[in-house]
Amino acid sequence: MELCLGATKMSLDEPRVMGILNVTPDSFSDGGHFDRLDLALRHAEEMALAGADFIDVGGESTRPGAAEVEVREELDRVIPVVEHIKRSLDVAISIDTSKPEVMSEAVAAGAVLINDVFALGRNGAVEAAARSGAAVCLMHMLGTPQTMQVAPHYDELPGDVIRFLQERVDVCVGGGISRERLVVDPGFGFGKNDRHNLQILRNLEQFSDLGLPLLVGLSRKRTLGKLTGRSAADRLAAGVAAATIAVLKGAHIVRTHDVAATVDAVKVARAVIRAGKEQ
After folding, report:
1. Which helix (H) or strand (E) holds 138?
2. Which pLDDT tens digit goes with each residue over 108-126?
3. Catalytic positions, please?
4. Which domains does the chain show, CATH number per domain?
5. Hey, how many other C-beta atoms are within 10 angstroms of the C-beta on 70?
6. What is the pTM of this model?
7. For residue 85, how many C-alpha atoms fall within 13 Å in the half-sphere facing its CB?
């Protein structure tokens, strides 16, 4: 399987790791840690050296209850970071945004993947993504960051999530975005309680029915804290365990705050998958 990233293609025959770079003051586990340009670039370099295939740059928190950020402020946060990473590091750049203006400017600055928690649902987003030529990750979210954790309900999991993603894929293809540019993400923690998250992870292989690369982000999520009793900054082992399960169940890209440990875990999972194919 390959993913078209603008003018280049990336093989996803083996799982890839995406490092998270939040240049925000209020993200749930690392808000304010990398909101200065020098700190952000140092962290991006550390993640690239640790083996990250992607750096996912985000300028607006999507934690439960997070306030929206104006377009100009988000651009001021992310564009200098994208430009500097493009100049200095050999890594694919993802832009974590739902705003069409940010998508367009970030791709012009060097991003090759648009990672949108609204699955290009905002006005003008499909058109902006189509024009950009970048790959797009479509994530499932029930509601908005302000409402998503207010009594989320599903009739069937993971079927409800898969059907939503298929609908968004159809909209994107109809809007001029080829399937070769699309990735899907079940959206762990976005409009899902602990039971929902575990049901989706247990049945993750069902997402292969979509025929598209699957991105999974479980790093430091609240469900892991509930299971272990640990704070967000102390969920490394839980996140590595969840990432390993996800890869063994078919995830192509793992999004994480903890790149070095996750890269090691993915290597082990890759070896297990290869051993099974060699039998």
Report:
1. strand 135-139
2. 999 999 999 999 999 999 9
3. 221, 255
4. 14-273 (3.20.20.20)
5. 10
6. 0.93
7. 36
